[in-house]
Amino acid sequence: MRLWLGLGALGAVLLTQSALAQSGLEGSYVGVAVDGSALQDELPNLLKSIEPQDWIVDAALRQMNGAAFNSQSSQSTAGSQFQGRYDVPNSPISVRGTVFVHSERSAVLPILSYDLPVGSGTNLYAGAGYAIVRPGTVTPLGTQSGMVLTTGIEASAGKNLVIYGDTKLNLNQDRSGNASSLRFQFGAGYRF
Length: 192
Hints:
alpha+beta
């Protein structure tokens, strides 16, 4: 029994050291995020695409140019959403931010996250932040200001291209309406 416990502990140490030795995604980036509700209508385009990262970039650019993804999308998805990451040097910590901009609605979400390298050029991350939402509006970041938890994955798709996807949970979301407190988004960014 002790032998199995010892081998299990040794295996856990070796796996942990191996994961820590991976470089993960390094560098900061800014990008355009796409609301996850667009995925259902965009799935045929994704399946036709040769490279998924090409589809993500195309979808992000279409959103930035104001093209609607689907006619049934809620007003919370109309507008432009930008996301960025500042990679704190020599640290597993990143400062992230999301900004939603529309002529009548806006929101800002600063986040502090912990990044875990899981492969060459790939990180898993988890963090917390505070969404600041213009009162009385509906945005992808929620309908009211409050604490937000996030988790996601980001990966290098070329020298300066990053693709990412994450989930955000607004802990202060008004649940009396039909707006969800859980949001999924994906996007593409320029790494520098």
